[in-house]
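#struct-help
A.M.: can someone run this one for me? Single chain, 308 residues.
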Amino acid sequence: MYKRIIHIALPERSSCFLWGPRQTGKSTLLQERYPTSKRYDLLLSDEYRRLMHQPSLLREECLALARRADTKDRPFVIDEVQKVPDLLDEIHWLIENTRMSFILCGSSARKLRRGHANLLGGRAIRYELFPLVFPEIPDFSLEKALNDGLLPPHYGSNMARMRLEAYVGDYLQEEIAAEAATRNIPGFSRFLEIAAMGNGEMIQFTNIARECGVSAPTVKSYYQILEDTLLGKFIPAYQKRPKRRVILAPRFYFFDVGVVGILTKRGRVETGSELFGRAFEHFLFMELSAYASPLTKTDPFVLVGDDP
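D.P.: on it. Structure tokens below:
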């Protein structure tokens, strides 16, 4: 198990959302940091059906547990909260009327926003969990990071490539395609490959649309899905003069270097090879993104190989 260099600042009687892509370690982190808190795991089918059928059970159970000395003043943890959006109304009521604390964990707020769910109106702090950063890994290997990626189950695993292929096939090309609400699954899969090939490059939506066989607005919506589900982000073009009229294209980076390797079907990245420079640039982007997060409490300017 990796020791995550992150800090969840949860003041007394405060609540937060903890978002992050699948397998970044959200559930493991919360179990480690809040071992005695009552946890509702909506990935469990019986828990999901019970609360989906009757969301008010959450309110009743939290009120009962709050009276017990051994659970009083501890935050309640709701894992995969986006699966039952109606729970947020109950949580809102409990925060307002009892000042209970909640940690609401999930892989995407997109479903909640799309369904006009209650996002608590600023009553919960928003945090995001990223893949591993190098100070969290004993005996860190840059070569392993560039090939295996930095999701905790993948880095250093003897089956890293198989795990990555399963992640891309089962999660990105199926679950995220479902987020697109599209029947053109082959088109979306092709988009993922083209987007990965252009990882870190300036985005030309028209060119990508032509290669994918879809419209430019559809390509923009696909990129928006990746950003909403925390699978990547746009970096705006730098403009020295704010009023300059030249139109500059943004760049897009995926959230993990190993995922890009599988999507592009590239070979192994070796030090000094042609692939090394781009993969290393992507790795630095991942590190800086994590250090910029309010969850990370460490020196962002310690480089690989430097003494701490």
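A.M.: thanks! The first strand starts at residue 15 and ends at 19.
D.P.: also worth noting: The first helix runs from residue 26 to 33.
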